[in-house]
Automatic annotation (TrEMBL):
Broad class of where this protein is predominantly found: cytoplasm
The enzyme's E.C. designation: 5.3.1.1
Any GO BP annotation: glycerol catabolic process
GO cellular component annotations of the record: cytosol
Organism whose genome encodes this protein: Candidatus Kaiserbacteria bacterium RIFCSPHIGHO2_12_FULL_53_13
Sequence similarity: Belongs to the triosephosphate isomerase family.
A Pfam family of this chain: TIM
Molecular function GO labels: triose-phosphate isomerase activity
Highest classification ranks of the organism: Bacteria, Candidatus Kaiseribacteriota
UniProt-listed CDD domains: TIM (cd00311)
Cited InterPro entries: Aldolase_TIM, TIM_sf, Triosephosphate_isomerase
Stretches that traverse the bilayer: none
Protein name in UniProt: Triosephosphate isomerase
UniProt subcellular location: Cytoplasm
Length: 250
């Protein structure tokens, strides 16, 4: 089974020229790693040109955000259909930086379901802002999951990818402990199984936050995850190539 790596470039780089260079380096690293499946999340404005120029099967594209409505008076937004038309086959839903800017659990419900209806794959991002001694972060994560999945029909549950990203680790260089991720993966799976039954086992779970080439192999080995969502390291060509390489060797 291939490991999934999502490269979330966020609002980087500044020009298409740099984006193309970064993309070429990521592509090269992915092509050398047969057991890695790479999904690139460039800024939407670069999506069509990057995706249009790519002919292989090794890589896919994910839009960092899209609106749940199909069309209309939503200045500055892009629709899921437009993202698909530009070359994306995945939609990132509820990234913590979108949530910090006001996106709610209810928005994630609408976007996840709209992505499924558009035959795109939603990557539902969840994760607590801080860890609580009494384990309140588990109920926080459960609420995010229940909301995000609320309108997903049982026959489509296995299409959703869940990216667990502890917000307190994002942007740093230290992941949470792989065994804590393992515990969280069991909790995520159980929450989905409680909603949908056995089909919940098929949901793919990714870990994201502070992933580097140094911590990625242990997370893949011990974290009970299908892959990784990578932020700042994915915008550094050399570090990202080292990360992909570290997973393919693990
Ligand atoms: C993210 O924000 O999705 C993320 C994984 O960031 P970083 O890798 O920079 O922690």
């Amino acid at each position: 089974m291939k490991s999934i790596v999502v490269a979330n470039w966020k609002m980087n780089p500044a020009s298409f020229k740099e984006a193309k260079k970064l993309f070429e380096a990521a592509k090269k690293a992915a092509e050398k790693s047969p057991n890695v499946s790479l999904i690139v999340a460039p800024p939407a404005i670069f999506l069509r040109e990057l995706a249009g120029g790519y002919r292989g099967k090794k890589l896919s594209f994910v839009v960092q955000n899209a609106h749940a409505e199909a069309k209309g008076a939503f200045t500055g937004e892009i629709s899921i259909a437009q993202a698909h038309d530009a070359g994306a086959s995945y939609v990132l839903v509820g990234h913590s930086e979108r949530r910090a800017a006001g996106e709610t659990n209810d928005d994630t419900r609408k976007k996840t379901s709209a992505a499924i209806s558009a035959r795109m794959t939603p990557i539902l991002c969840i994760g607590e802002e801080k860890r609580a001694a009494l384990g309140e972060h588990f109920s926080f994560v459960r609420d995010q999951l229940r909301a995000g999945f609320a309108d997903v029909p049982p026959a489509r549950v296995s299409r959703v990818i869940v990216a667990y990203e502890p917000v307190w680790a994002i942007g740093s260089e230290t992941t949470m402990k792989p065994r804590d991720m393992h515990e969280m993966a069991i909790f995520i799976r159980k929450t989905i199984i409680d909603m949908y039954g056995e089909v919940g086992h098929a949901v793919r779970i990714l870990y994201g936050a502070a992933v580097t080439d140094e911590n990625a192999p242990a997370m893949m080995r011990e974290g009970d995850v299908r892959g990784l969502l990578v932020g700042h390291v994915s915008t550094n060509a050399e570090r990202f190539a080292a990360l992909i390489n570290s997973i393919s060797k693990a």
